[in-house]
Design brief:
Length: about 350
C-alpha cells in the first residue's frame, strides 16, 4: 500500500513537472507590441519619425485552416489596436514535440521559431530574418533554462547563444509566450533609447518589445514596465496591457498642445519646448525613477505659442527621469534620459 501511494505521488509530481503550456490558444492568441515604452496617444505613436522596421501594434493568431494536411492559425497584423486587417502568414504548434512554426503567406516556406523541448546544451537552427535580426542564421545553443514568473504563472525561460560566435547577443524566449520582443522575432536591431532605459531591473530598455500577450481572451503576460506607471503619472492603470495605450498622452482640452524635450538623451542641459494654446501658469518638476521630486526648475507663466524652459542636467546622475508639467487644467509627464 505504501509503495502504491508513493508511486501515485511520484506520478503526480512527474505529470506536473512535464506540463506543457501552449503558445497558441484554441480560440485567439494576441500579442501587443510596444513602440514607445511609455503611455502615449495613438496619434503620437503613429506620427513618430522613429518607427522601427517591424510595426508596433497588435498581432493575432485566429481562425483554423489546413495547409498540406497541417493545422494552422491565420496570423494577422493590425495598424492599430482596434483593427486587425492584414493577413501575414500562418502559425502552427506541435504540442507533442513542443515546437512552434511560422509559414510565410507568400513563399509558403515553414520555419521553426520556438522549440520548448530543448535542454541545456541542445542546439536549434534559427532561420533569422535579416531585416529584424542582424545576427546570422545558424545554430544557437541553449546556455541556461530557468523559471520565470509571468502573469499566468511560472514558465521556462530559455537563453541561447550562437554556437560559433561567442560574442553574439543572447536570445531569449519564454514557454507559452514566445519571444519577449515580437511574436516571430527573438532579436531587435532598433536600439533607440526607450523611456525605461535607465531602469535596470526591467528587460525592456529599448523602443520595441512585447507589452502583453493574451490567450483565449485571458491575459497571460505583461511586461515589467507596468511598475513605472505611477512614476509616469498613470495612477489608474498599473498594467502594461492597458496603460501603454491610454496614459501620458496630452489631453486635447489642455492648455498645452505639444511638448518636446531636446536633446533627449541629455548631457549638460535639456530644453523643454511647450506649444501653448493659451496663457497659463505652470510648475515644472524633475522626477526620478521612483517618483521622488528632485527639484522644481520652473514656476511661472507661459504665453500663447512656443515657450522654452531650460533645465541644467550636468550635475545629475545618468539614468531615467521624468519632466512633470502641472497647470490649472492639466498634468503632463514626459520621460528624459540623462547620459554622461
Amino acid at each position: 500500500m505504501k509503495k502504491l501511494l508513493l508511486s501515485l505521488i511520484l506520478l503526480s509530481f512527474f505529470s506536473k513537472a512535464q506540463t506543457y503550456y501552449k503558445t497558441i490558444g484554441s480560440n485567439k492568441t494576441q500579442w501587443d507590441i510596444f513602440f514607445a515604452m511609455y503611455g502615449v496617444s495613438q496619434a503620437e505613436k503613429t506620427s513618430s519619425p522613429l518607427a522601427p522596421n517591424v510595426n508596433f501594434g497588435r498581432y493575432i493568431a485566429v481562425n483554423d485552416t489546413i495547409i498540406a494536411s497541417k493545422n494552422y492559425k491565420k496570423y494577422y497584423y493590425g495598424a492599430n489596436t482596434s483593427t486587425v486587417n492584414t493577413h501575414i502568414g500562418y502559425l502552427r504548434e506541435d504540442t507533442v514535440a513542443k515546437k512552434v512554426y511560422y509559414l510565410d503567406k507568400t513563399s509558403l516556406i515553414e520555419d521553426l521559431i520556438f522549440d520548448f523541448s530543448l535542454n541545456v546544451g541542445d542546439s536549434i537552427y534559427l532561420n533569422l530574418v535579416p531585416t529584424m535580426n542582424p545576427l546570422p542564421k545558424g545554430y544557437y545553443k541553449v546556455k541556461t533554462i530557468q523559471n520565470t514568473t509571468i502573469k499566468a504563472g511560472i514558465r521556462k525561460e530559455f537563453k541561447l547563444k550562437h554556437t560559433t560566435i561567442p560574442s553574439s547577443d543572447t536570445l531569449r524566449f519564454i514557454e507559452s509566450v514566445g519571444s519577449i520582443i515580437h511574436p516571430l522575432y527573438l532579436y531587435k536591431n532598433y536600439f533607440g533609447f526607450g523611456a525605461f532605459a535607465g531602469y535596470p531591473s526591467c528587460p525592456f530598455p529599448y523602443d520595441l518589445g512585447l507589452a502583453c500577450k493574451w490567450t483565449n481572451n485571458m491575459k497571460e503576460f505583461q511586461s515589467c514596465t507596468y511598475v513605472l506607471a505611477l512614476a509616469n503619472g498613470c495612477f489608474f492603470k498599473l498594467d502594461s496591457c492597458n496603460y501603454w495605450n491610454n496614459c501620458g498622452g496630452i489631453n486635447e482640452l489642455s492648455a498645452i498642445k505639444k511638448v518636446t524635450l531636446s536633446p533627449n538623451p541629455a548631457q549638460n542641459h535639456c530644453v523643454v519646448t511647450l506649444d501653448a494654446t493659451q496663457e497659463s501658469k505652470i510648475t515644472a518638476d524633475l522626477i526620478d525613477i521612483s517618483g521622488r521630486k528632485i527639484k522644481t526648475f520652473f514656476v511661472g507663466n507661459i504665453i500663447l505659442g512656443e515657450n522654452e524652459i531650460r533645465l541644467e542636467t550636468e550635475s545629475l546622475e545618468s539614468g531615467l527621469y521624468f519632466i512633470s508639467l502641472t497647470g490649472d487644467n492639466f498634468k503632463i509627464t514626459q520621460p528624459l534620459t540623462i547620459t554622461h
